[in-house]
Amino acid sequence: MQDLIATREQLGRGHADAAEEFQRALATAQSPACDKAFLQLFPQDARAASAAAARLPLAGLPVSVKDLFDIEGQVTAAGSRVLADAPPAVADSPAVARLRAAGASLIGRTNMTEFAFSGVGVNPHHGTPANPADPATPRIPGGSSSGAAVSVATGAAFIGLGSDTGGSIRIPAALCGIVGFKNTARLTPLQGALPLSTTLDTICAMTRSVRDAVLAHEVLAARRVALEHRPLSARRFAVARTSMLDGLDLAVAQGFEAALRTLRDAGARIEEIALDEIRDLGAIQSTGGFTAAESYAWHRQLLDRKGDGYDPRVRVRIERGASMKAWEYVDLVRARADWIARVETALAGFDAVLSPTVPMVAPAIDQVAPGAERDEAFFRVNALLLRNTSVVNMLDGCALSLPCHVPGTLPVGLMLWHGAMRDDAVLDAGLAVEAALAARHS
């Protein structure tokens, strides 16, 4: 499937038309492939696909917006029913405004885990979009940015705007076989996006390629990415052994090892490190994490009024935040700062760390669908999906997930990650890694 930059080049040569691209994407968004992926479509936004927009970075091409973001005149419901009577937004969120200013045509609002509180992607209110990677078996798309991933993977959008608090961009990107980039949180504005954890939330996007991820980040962060384009032979990567390689599905283990072989064959230096600091996260968060405490602070009054309307699996995790004491929260902030310093010391000298994005391929929806009888399976899968990705959020770092599976098999994600403000280095390395992985199949 052609990426945004290639399509933009065709537009510039007169070999494609932005309005036609939008209509083609809209037809996909209305097709069975995107069933339950969109909560609302904006066919009228084709007006953005104009001659003027074609000269802008996003060239009038379709972009989807997670139901977490304010769009002027619309209610921001965050995949829930309890906010249906909330007042409409008085302005676009900065993320949406920046996409519009860059020439994006907004194609629609995408489905999501209610209030973004899960990596699985199921939604009892609006249904769960099926992962397009397997037409035979309805599989989870991953979450919380479930519809955003499906919109990109099917071709209904070139960019899927979403958020990442513990992996909500990278998990669905890995499971659906596309690219997801979680930037350093401070680089993109959180205003106008309904919060889950103000400490961990990151505004970011999914795309069809790493170069599109660079472009999307430049738009959302209003900054230029500095790329060195160094070859893999000039790069040094780490592989973290602790927990991140535990209990991998066979397909994930094979895909990850094959990717490492490809990168070594291309000259990359890859070293295994223990990174035992990851084991400390359990103790650091033993009294509750940022997400429960900070989401409860936002939801507590709404829960009093409309708690029965919440997804029970979401409500129970939010309500855990009610028991956290002020001193425990302060200790958590201090412990995180100390932990970040220790991890950054361990990663000094590496261009990035290489890990499987998630330890499994996408399970079938019916294994984790809403229902108390499947709660145990749901929470087990959710914990596994978040295990690797959430490390980067606690690090206040940046991470890129890109496909590393063999064509014709279920998607497997390779995650490149590092500490805060290493975004350009991670993206630069990602371009080289993506090229090497593509070359092995050419």
From TrEMBL:
PROSITE patterns per the UniProt record, alphabetical: AMIDASES
Gene Ontology molecular function, alphabetical: amidase activity
Domain Amidase: 25-427
InterPro entries: Amidase, Amidase_CS, Amidase_dom, AS_sf
Region (Disordered): 126-145
Enzyme Commission number(s): 3.5.1.4
Xref: Gene3D superfamilies: Amidase signature (AS) domain
Superkingdom, taxonomy of origin: Bacteria
Keywords, ordered alphabetically: Hydrolase
Top-level class of the enzyme under EC nomenclature: hydrolase
UniProt cross-references to PANTHER family, sorted A to Z: AMIDASE AMID-RELATED, TRANSAMIDASE
Record protein name field: Amidase
Species in which this protein is naturally found: Ramlibacter henchirensis
